[in-house]
TrEMBL record:
It comes from the Bacteria. This is Exosporium protein C. It comes from Marininema halotolerans.
Length: 150
C-alpha cells in the first residue's frame, strides 16, 4: 500500500496577538471556547489505503491568566459520518503572563468518511470563570496521509 499525501488545512482564528489580558475571556463551561475547525479531504485515498488514514493536528493559542497560575483544557473533536468523537483532551498550565500554549494530536485510522471529508474542531476551556484571556494568535493545522511503506 503506497504512502499517499491526502490534504493539509489551516484555520487561523486570530492572526496577531492583542495586548496581554485584553482578549475575550475563555469559557469555563465545557466544551469551552471554539478555536477553529478544518475539514481534511480524504476522497483521493486509494481503495487499499482507506482503512489506514492518519491525521496529524497542531494547535497554538496565545493565552493569559489574570491571577495566579491556572490551567486550560484543550479538546479536539472529529466529526465524520454524522458522529462527533473526542479524540484529544489535555491540560496546559497558564501562568500570570501571556504564553503561546499548544498541542500536537494524532488521529490514527479514523473511520473512512462517506462524504470524503473528516472535520476537526478545537476548543479551549478555562478552569475558572473570567480569569483567562484568549489573546492570540490562534492557529489550527492538520495534515492527512494514508498507506504504509512496502
Amino acid at each position: 500500500m503506497p504512502i499517499q499525501f491526502l490534504d493539509i488545512r489551516t484555520s487561523q482564528a486570530i492572526s496577531n496577538g492583542v495586548p496581554s489580558g485584553t482578549g475575550s475571556f475563555i469559557s469555563d463551561v465545557a466544551p469551552g471556547t471554539f478555536l477553529g475547525g478544518i475539514g481534511v479531504i480524504t476522497k483521493g485515498a486509494l481503495q487499499q489505503n482507506k482503512n489506514d488514514i492518519r491525521v496529524q493536528l497542531r494547535l497554538s493559542a496565545g493565552v493569559t491568566s489574570e491571577i495566579s497560575e491556572n490551567f486550560v483544557t484543550f479538546r479536539v473533536y472529529r466529526i465524520s459520518n454524522g458522529v462527533t468523537t473526542l479524540i484529544f483532551q489535555g491540560n496546559q498550565v497558564v501562568p500570570p503572563a501571556t504564553i503561546i500554549a499548544g498541542i500536537v494530536a494524532s488521529d490514527f485510522q479514523p473511520p473512512f468518511p462517506t462524504n470524503g471529508q473528516i472535520v476537526y474542531q478545537t476548543y479551549v476551556q478555562a478552569n475558572l470563570a473570567n480569569v483567562i484571556h484568549l489573546d492570540g494568535p490562534v492557529s489550527f493545522n492538520g495534515t492527512a496521509a494514508t498507506g504504509t511503506s512496502p
